[in-house]
Design brief:
heterodimer; A: 442 residues; alpha+beta; Beta-Lactamase; Heat Shock Protein 90; 3 domains; five-stranded antiparallel β-sheet; five-stranded mixed β-sheet; 7 helices; rod-shaped; B: 225 residues; alpha/beta; Rossmann fold; Arc Repressor Mutant, subunit A; five-stranded parallel β-sheet; four-stranded antiparallel β-sheet; 8 helices; elongated
C-alpha cells in the first residue's frame, strides 16, 4: 500500500516536472520566433520589401538545423515567398498540426509529419509574415523526458516495492517467530523464549519484555504445579494413615478409653496434615511474591538476637549451645514475619539434626552495604552431593529420616530468601554446616 | 460475657455457640453479614466473633462499618483464609485478633477471654502485681517477695504477657504470636521450654506456684486459691 502511495506521489512529481520542462522549451522556441519576426520586420523597415524577401530566403536556405519555415503573403493574400503551403492568416503563436505542407522548389510539395510552431504577424503595410520552427524538437524532448521519467518511475516503484517487501518481510518474519513461540508455549512448552536479536530497536525491547513476562508466568505456573504435586504426593500418606487408624478402631468393639485414644491420635494426625497443607500454601504464596509491596525496614540484628535468646533454652535441653555475634543495626527491607520464620527454620534444623554437644552460632555482619547473616553448626554437616537437593520441598536426607518433621524447612528458607533478593549459600563450616544469607543494601 | 457470633456455616456456629454457652457465656448468633451488622451496632456485646466469608455483607466490610460507627467492642475474626496478607487485612480493618479455621475450641475461648478484659485502664500502670510477684513495665524488672528475679529480656516479655492476662488461659499460639511474634508453627517446643525456664525462676524456691499449665489449653498465671 505504501508502494502505491509512493508511486502516486512520484508520478505527480514527474508530471509536474514534465509539464514545466515542456512549457520552458515551448517558451524558448516561441521567444526565438518572435525575435526572428521582429528582426525580419526591421529588415523591411530598413530595406523595403526586397530586403525582407531576401532575408527570408536567406533564412530558409541557411543550415537547416533546426529546419526553419516561413511564409510571406501580400495584402491580398498572394504568396510572395516562403516554403509553406496556403495557410490562414493567424496572428500570434500557433502550432500547425501535421501534416504540414512544405514547398521546396516549384511544385515540389511534401507533407511534413511533425507539428510546426509558428508565429504570425501582420506588418504595417498589410503584409502577413509567418515564421516557424520544427516542433519535432519539442516532441523529441518530450519523448526523452517521458522515457527518462518512465525509467525513473519503474526503478522507484521497483525499489519501493522491493525495499518495502524486504523490510516488512524481515519484520513479518520476526513477528512470525513470536507467534510461533507463543503457540508453542500455549501448547505446553513452557521453556520456549523468543530469540532476541539484540539490535536494541523497539521490536527487541518488546521481545525482551515479552520474555520477562513469560519468565514470570513460568514461575507462577511452576509454583502452581508444584503445589498440586506436593498435595497429591505428600498429603496422601498421612491421610491414608488417618483413615487406617479410624478404620482399625472400628473393626471391633473397643473400650471407651481405647476409642478416646484413637480419637486423640486422629486429631493429632489431622493437625499434622493441616500443618503440612499450610506449609505448602505458605511456600507457594511466598514464591508467587505478592508480598513485596508490604515490605518495611526490619532490624535484622534485633530479630536474630530475639531468636538466639528464644532458642537458647531449647538448645540447652538438647545438650547443645547457641551463641551469637551480631553487628548492631543491620537493617534490611522486607517482611519481618517471613524473615523471622526463615531464620527460625535454620536454627531449628540445626537443633533437630545435630547431636548433643553441637555448638550453633548465629552471625550478622555488614559487608559494605550488604547485610550478611549466617547460621552455622559444628555438627556432622551435609554431604556435598546433597547440597542442591536440600532445597527441594520434601527432601530429607536419608540420615535424618528418623527425626520428626517434614522436609519443608529449607524450601521455605529459599523461598523467603528469593523474595527478599537475598543470595543464599550453603557451605562446609569445617567442620559442620553453614547457611549464609546475603541481603542487598536496602 | 455477652458474645455476638456472626457465622454462616451452621455446624461451626452450633459448635462455637454451644461451647461458649457451656462456659457460662450468653451468645447471640447471626447467620449473615447484614443481620450481624444490625445486631453489632444495636446490642451491647463484650466481644464480637466474626467470620470473614459471609453472605450479604462480608466480614471485613462489617467490621469496617462497625468501627466507622464508633463501636469499640473487641473483634475476633474467624476465617479459612490463612494467608499472611489476609491476617494483616483483617487487623487493619479493625479486628483485634485473627483465628484460622480449623481451630481448637480452647484456642477460641482463650482468645475471646483475652479480648474481653475490662476497658483499658485510663492510665498506663507501670506496675503489675499478682500475689507477691511484681513487675515494673518501664524499668523491665521483676521481683518476687522483694527478691529481684534476674530475668532476661525475652523472659520478661513472657512474664509481662502472662501477668497482663492474669487469671485467664493463654494458649501456646497466643504466646507465639504476641511474645515472640512467630506467625507460624515452630517445629520445636520453644514455648514449653521457655515457660519452663521462666517457671524455674519465678516459682522455684517460693512459697506458691503462680504459673500453671492448663491441660489441653495452655498456661495461666494466677495466685493460688
Amino acid at each position: 500500500m505504501y508502494a502505491v502511495l509512493f508511486a502516486v506521489s512520484t508520478s505527480l512529481l514527474f508530471a509536474v516536472i514534465y509539464w514545466i520542462a515542456c512549457q520552458a522549451l515551448l517558451n524558448q522556441i516561441q521567444d526565438g520566433l518572435a525575435r526572428e519576426a521582429s528582426s525580419l520586420a526591421d529588415d523591411q523597415q530598413s530595406g523595403g520589401m526586397n530586403e525582407l524577401i531576401r532575408s527570408i530566403q536567406e533564412r530558409l536556405a541557411a543550415s537547416d538545423l533546426p529546419p526553419a519555415y516561413a511564409l510571406l503573403l501580400d495584402a491580398s493574400g498572394r504568396k510572395l515567398t516562403g516554403n509553406l503551403g496556403e495557410l490562414a492568416r493567424v496572428e500570434g503563436f500557433m502550432s500547425l498540426s501535421p501534416p504540414v505542407k512544405v514547398v521546396r522548389g516549384l511544385d515540389n510539395e511534401e507533407d511534413y509529419e511533425h507539428a510546426v510552431i509558428a508565429f504570425g504577424r501582420t506588418l504595417p503595410d498589410g503584409t502577413y509574415l509567418l515564421v516557424g520552427e520544427d516542433g519535432n524538437r519539442i516532441d523529441e524532448a518530450k519523448e526523452a523526458i517521458l522515457r527518462a521519467f518512465s525509467w525513473g518511475l519503474a526503478t522507484t516503484l521497483f525499489l519501493a516495492v522491493g525495499g518495502g517487501m524486504l523490510l516488512s518481510s524481515g519484520f513479518l518474519r520476526r513477528i512470525e517467530v513470536i507467534n510461533r513461540t507463543t503457540r508453542a508455549i500455549v501448547a505446553g512448552n513452557l521453556d520456549d523464549r523468543v530469540p532476541n536479536r539484540a539490535t536494541g530497536d523497539e521490536l527487541d525491547q518488546l521481545v525482551a519484555n515479552f520474555n520477562a513476562m513469560l519468565d514470570r508466568i513460568q514461575v507462577l505456573m511452576e509454583s502452581l504445579r508444584q503445589v498440586s504435586s506436593d498435595i497429591a504426593h505428600d498429603l496422601r500418606s498421612p491421610l491414608h494413615r488417618l483413615r487406617q487408624r479410624l478404620e482399625g478402631a472400628r473393626s471391633r468393639t473397643r473400650t471407651v478409653a481405647e476409642y478416646q485414644g484413637v480419637l486423640d491420635s486422629a486429631i493429632a494426625d489431622a493437625d499434622n496434615i493441616l500443618s503440612i497443607f499450610s506449609a505448602i500454601l505458605a511456600i507457594a504464596q511466598i514464591e508467587t511474591g505478592n508480598r513485596r509491596f508490604a515490605f518495611a525496614e526490619v532490624d535484622l540484628s534485633a530479630v536474630v538476637a530475639d531468636i538466639a535468646e528464644a532458642y537458647g533454652a531449647v538448645a540447652e535441653d538438647q545438650g547443645q549451645t547457641i551463641s551469637s555475634a551480631l553487628a548492631p543495626g543491620g537493617a534490611v527491607r522486607g517482611d519481618r514475619a517471613l524473615l523471622t520464620q526463615m531464620l527460625v527454620n535454620l536454627v531449628e534444623n540445626a537443633i533437630r539434626h545435630c547431636p548433643r554437644q553441637t555448638h550453633i552460632t548465629l552471625n550478622l555482619e555488614q559487608d559494605q552495604d550488604d547485610v550478611v547473616v549466617s547460621v552455622s553448626d559444628n555438627g556432622p554437616g551435609i554431604p556435598q552431593e546433597e547440597w542442591t537437593n536440600v532445597f527441594r520441598r520434601f527432601y530429607r536426607l536419608d540420615s535424618s529420616r528418623s527425626t520428626a518433621g517434614f522436609g519443608l524447612g529449607l524450601a521455605l528458607v529459599k523461598a523467603v530468601a528469593d523474595l527478599h533478593g537475598a543470595a543464599i549459600e550453603i557451605m562446609d563450616a569445617q567442620p559442620g554446616f553453614r547457611v549464609r544469607l546475603r541481603f542487598p543494601a536496602s | 460475657m455477652k458474645i455476638l457470633l456472626v457465622e454462616d456455616d451452621p455446624e461451626t456456629a452450633a459448635y462455637v455457640s454451644g461451647s461458649l454457652k457451656e462456659h457460662g457465656n450468653a451468645v447471640d448468633h447471626a447467620a449473615d453479614g447484614r443481620e450481624g451488622l444490625i445486631l453489632a451496632a444495636a446490642g451491647r456485646y463484650d466481644v464480637l466473633v466474626v467470620d470473614r466469608m459471609l453472605p450479604g455483607l462480608d466480614g471485613l466490610a462489617l467490621v469496617k462499618t462497625v468501627r466507622a460507627a464508633g463501636v469499640k467492642t473487641p473483634i475476633l475474626f474467624l476465617t479459612t483464609r490463612s494467608g499472611i496478607d489476609d491476617r494483616v487485612e483483617g487487623l487493619e480493618a479493625g479486628g483485634d485478633d485473627y483465628l484460622v479455621k480449623p481451630f481448637a475450641f480452647s484456642e477460641l475461648l482463650a482468645r475471646v477471654n483475652a479480648l474481653s478484659r475490662r476497658p483499658p485502664l485510663a492510665e498506663e500502670t507501670t506496675r503489675l502485681r499478682v500475689a507477691d510477684l511484681e513487675i515494673d513495665i518501664r524499668l523491665r524488672t521483676a521481683s518476687r517477695a522483694g527478691q529481684d528475679l534476674g530475668l532476661k529480656p525475652m523472659e520478661f516479655r513472657l512474664l509481662e504477657f502472662l501477668m497482663r492476662n492474669a487469671g485467664r488461659v493463654v494458649t501456646r499460639s497466643m504466646l507465639l504470636e504476641k511474645v515472640w511474634e512467630f506467625h507460624f508453627d515452630p517445629r520445636t517446643n520453644v514455648v514449653e521450654t521457655n515457660v519452663s525456664r521462666l517457671r524455674s525462676k519465678v516459682d522455684r524456691g517460693f512459697t506458691s506456684e503462680l504459673i500453671h499449665t492448663v491441660r489441653g489449653a495452655g498456661y495461666s498465671l494466677r495466685a493460688p486459691k
